[in-house]
Amino acid sequence: MSARTLRxxxxxxxxxxxxxxxxxxxxxxxxxxxxxITPAMAELIEAADDPIGRQFVPTEAELQILPExxxxxxxxxxxxxxxxxxxxxxxxxxLKLNHACAVYCRFCFRREMVGxxxxxxxxxxxxxxxxxxxxxxxxxxEVIVTGGDPFILSPRRLREAMARxxxxxxxxxxxxxxxxxxxxxxxxxxxxxxxxxxSGKTAYVALHANHAxxxxxxxxAACARIVDAGLPMLxxxxxxxxxxxxxxxxxxxxxxxVETRIKPYYLHHPDLAPGTAHLRVxxxxxxxxxxxxxxxxxxxxxxxxxxxIPGGHGKVPVGPDYLADGRVEDPAGRRHAYPPSDxxxxxx
Length: 348
Known about the structure:
The protein is an alpha/beta fold. Helix content is about 25%, strand content about 15%. Helix 10 packs across helix 11.
């Protein structure tokens, strides 16, 4: 019998990922925050506190809620006038077709929305209203299909969504955000990839991966099916304590992405989601990490270090600054005048 997704603390205990004496505490967590670990990820977990386990195995630390944490840490709801739509920026919007995932990350900024008591899937009427919202706003150039994870939907439903977007001439770009190619690569079939394509639209696929070990041979083959079909891929990662918060691990992740024909796009500073403090790092530490890989890792491997400002105020880059007071710092930490003080009128 084929392996199945682990969906409860009891399943985790049976798989040897958590101790049985901790089940009462873990059941309290699972009652609020969804649990699911696919076979592909379970196979990679060597210990609950290894870089893969920390992402997916629930722990008692999730019961510790800090005052600054919020059920909606980036302010999605403030920009959601229509169910299934988040419209924060003029030229693009999120379309949340569903609110379920193949795996549930312990640091998820939407963990309250995709949890057991979270948002329900869009009804046909709600989907119609969301599509009407996009159709009626010609400034929307890009639609970002997210959730939940849209790639757990059937190819038929993805194809229908793309057909409706294809009928909107002002929508030029459709971007899908997913973890599926890494966490359940067998789901990336030719039929699913074909469903992402529509005449007159450029589709992108953004893969969320946080550690190079997630890009297994099966995951790389799944990504190849996407890229070979003509769909560019981007990489999104979250900076996480004990997962990827050192230069060597980050460099290995970004190199693995580029080798898989995925351009690292964003490295997200972790959001202030409830019960996630044990996985967060300081912004200063993130800046130091980005500085450490600058100059030692190919430019192809350099994402933008980004902070989503709490309250719905948008994303801003928070990487290190190399220019101040007329001097620029090189990757080795040496400072130089700019323009150089010894330049003549003909330049340097």
